[in-house]
């Protein structure tokens, strides 16, 4: 039967060598781009609330393009493109050539390799970039809004679009918006101004968010010649932290915390109250300016609404991924609020002192859970923690036993005017009785 043995077929001309394939792949693989600034959200953050990072209505950029749940908006984006071209008299090919010339740079701004053919990639960027510009124009000028537009007309999806535009995975490099934006055709000074007007109006978490600064003042703080805007999430973060440049003591606070290596933990609000700490709302400064002085903890007012969690989560995700800065102002702010809020009672005290305004519904328990969840997955450097000095000072004050005693006495015995009157009356009676007793003893002698 030897003649029936057949050798296994081999491809002599094209042998497959796994090692050789790996070597070729390693040799051709470029290093991570130093320009990358648009990222997939890390799993440690995403797992806490997936929907906070996933667009609900519209895809912008290549990451979520083609998602079945978002395809309904593709025709609407194309309609915006058509309206834009008709109004400005622009030529589609001119815009396509501009994007094609920047394709390599555009790809390098994403945190992972974009596996899409050149023509498809250019088309995605073109349609989405014009959509963002047209949306900002219509948002700023209601004369451009159309009753047949499902975004600004019925069923009015503008709120859904706005939050989708502020998701980290749903971003376009800002430079391409600037390249496609022609002020002569669009009759607006710049796409930066349009974006700042939009963000200033819609993405605040209270009157202290921008330090009370007007749009014009904020625009002056964003200097493209000194620091390039990377995308809309980056621009919003820059606007939020812009007031910090007016607070030299804030930089000093961080430097001091770094030098002394203070703790990154603090007692909760209720514990601080029992330790004798008083609370005061600050309304004349920036959101991050939390201070402790002479037993008073001063915290800027925070308003929490339906979109607050999405905004904060995506700003935090950007800070956690960014390779261009070691400052984690928003991550540190959320972390210190998490330290101060351990229980619903802590939230109750913050609301009572008008430091937090809860527009969520669901009560103190729901809000305390939200604040605690926000910090899950955040990685921070305790030696560079923005509120390091604050934490140290709070612990020092809290640890003094006499403060606890006085606070408990005040809470239990002097919590109302009638309690104070009763206490004073009791003291007077005791003193009067003591005097009577002493007089009686003296008279017996």
Describe the overall structure.
The chain contains 21 helices and five strands. It has helices at residues 18-28, 43-46, 74-88, 92-101, 103-108, 118-140, 158-165, 174-180, 183-186, 191-202, 215-221, 232-241, 248-260, 269-274, 308-321, 329-340, 344-352, 363-374, 388-398, 401-413, 417-444; strands spanning 278-282, 291-293, 296-300, 302-304, 356-358. Helix 3 (74-88) packs across helix 6 (118-140) and helix 10 crosses helix 12. The protein is mostly helical. A hairpin with a 2-residue loop joins strand 2 (291-293) and strand 3 (296-300). It has a three-stranded mixed β-sheet with strand order 1-3-2, with helices on one face. The protein has a two-stranded parallel sheet with strand order 4-5. Helix content is 53%, strand content 4%. The model has no long low-confidence stretch (mean pLDDT 85).
């Amino acid at each position: 039967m030897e003649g029936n043995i057949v050798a296994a077929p081999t491809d002599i001309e094209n042998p497959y060598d796994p090692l050789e394939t790996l070597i070729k792949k390693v040799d051709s693989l470029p290093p991570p781009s130093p320009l990358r600034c648009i990222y997939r959200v890390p799993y440690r953050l995403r797992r806490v609330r997936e929907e906070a990072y996933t667009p609900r209505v519209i895809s912008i950029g290549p990451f979520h393009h083609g998602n079945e749940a978002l395809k309904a908006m593709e025709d609407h984006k194309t309609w915006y493109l058509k309206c834009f071209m008709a109004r400005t008299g622009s030529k589609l090919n001119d815009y396509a050539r501009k994007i094609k010339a920047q394709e390599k740079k555009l790809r390098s701004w994403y945190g992972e390799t974009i596996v899409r053919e050149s023509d498809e990639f250019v088309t995605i960027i073109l349609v989405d970039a014009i959509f963002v510009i047209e949306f900002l124009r219509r948002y700023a000028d209601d004369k451009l809004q159309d009753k047949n537009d499902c975004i600004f007309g019925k069923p009015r999806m503008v709120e859904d679009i706005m939050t989708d535009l502020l998701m980290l995975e749903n971003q376009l490099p800002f430079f391409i918006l600037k390249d496609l934006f022609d002020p002569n055709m669009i009759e607006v000074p710049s796409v930066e101004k349009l974006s700042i007007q939009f963000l200033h109006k819609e993405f605040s978490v209270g009157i202290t968010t921008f330090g009370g600064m007007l749009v014009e003042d904020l625009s002056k703080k964003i200097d493209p010649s000194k620091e390039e805007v990377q995308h809309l999430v980056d621009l919003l973060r820059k606007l939020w932290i812009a007031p910090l440049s007016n607070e030299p003591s804030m930089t000093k606070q961080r430097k001091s915390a770094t030098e002394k290596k203070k703790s990154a933990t603090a007692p909760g609000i209720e514990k601080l109250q029992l330790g004798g700490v008083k609370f005061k709302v600050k309304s004349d400064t920036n959101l991050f300016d939390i201070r402790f002085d002479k037993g008073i903890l001063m915290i800027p007012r925070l308003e929490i609404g339906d979109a607050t969690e999405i905004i904060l989560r995506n700003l935090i995700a950007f800070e956690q991924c960014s390779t261009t800065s070691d400052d984690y102002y928003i991550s540190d702010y959320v972390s210190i609020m998490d330290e101060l809020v351990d229980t619903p009672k802590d939230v109750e005290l913050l609301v009572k002192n008008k430091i937090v305004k809860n527009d969520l519904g669901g009560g103190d328990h729901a809000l305390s859970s939200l604040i605690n969840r926000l910090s899950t997955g955040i990685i921070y450097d305790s030696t560079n923690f923005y509120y390091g000095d604050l934490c140290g000072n709070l612990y020092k004050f809290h640890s003094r036993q006499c403060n606890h005693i006085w606070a408990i006495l005040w809470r239990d015995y002097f919590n109302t005017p009638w309690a104070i009157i009763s206490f004073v009356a009791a003291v007077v009676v005791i003193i009067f009785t003591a005097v009577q007793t002493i007089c009686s003893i003296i008279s017996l002698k």
